[in-house]
Amino acid sequence: MKRSFLPVLLLVLAPAGTLLAQEQEHAEEGEQEHMEHAPLISTVAPLHEMVKGYLIASAEQMPEELYGFKPNEEVRSFGQIIGHVASALYMFCGTATGDGGQAPENFENRTTKAGFVEAIKMGFAACDAAYEMDNETAMEEVDFFGNTGTRLWVLSFNNAHNWEHYGNLVVYFRANGMVPPSSAMGGM
Q: By the number of CB atoms within 10 A of the CB, which of 26, 50, 79, 122 ranks highest?
């Protein structure tokens, strides 16, 4: 007499499968609940920290003699891009926090590596607190460049702007036979 173990095996494994499915469902519910309670700003803050690291490292890594480098006369020099980003950080984050957004000077006009490194660090220092606002504040509407959006939207725009200009700097590094920070750090 041949007996099939398949029905017995199914009877034994079916409850285990049900338990695993229930555990997975509870885990997903817990993740969803966690996401609903996590600050909205946490969706953009890690990108801010990442690009901040790359931009500061770029300013520190580029030799002084290449701060005036530009691929052609129609674009900003390496130093001018660093200065532009530093000034823009005040504008973006000042709008997001409601602090006004005026840089203490036009950092694009600085002329030394030390001055540009200081400027980018100052810009990010002025900006960091914006990435710690609560959900309610993050969802308040503000006017920015003739548009209305949330404070979170302005910070997302800030990140996009920073990444755009970091992309410019990557080209400047490569054009000078150098490895940009994101590649050197194993990031991107």
A: 79
CATH C-level class of 39-184:
mainly alpha
Pull the structure tokens for residue 134: 């609560």
Tell me which amino acid residue 144 is.
Answer: F
Please give the structure tokens belonging to residue 88: 């823009």
| Whether 144 contacts 154, CB under 8 Å | yes
Residue 38 reports pLDDT greater than 50: no
> What distance in Å separates the CA atoms of residue 73 and residue 169, rounded to the nearest whole number?
16
Instruction: Give the residue ranges of DSSP H helices in the chain.
Output: 6-37, 45-61, 78-97, 113-127, 135-138, 151-175, 181-184
Amino acid identity at 177? G
pLDDT digits (tens, 9 = 90+) for 124-148: 999 999 999 999 999 999 999 899 9
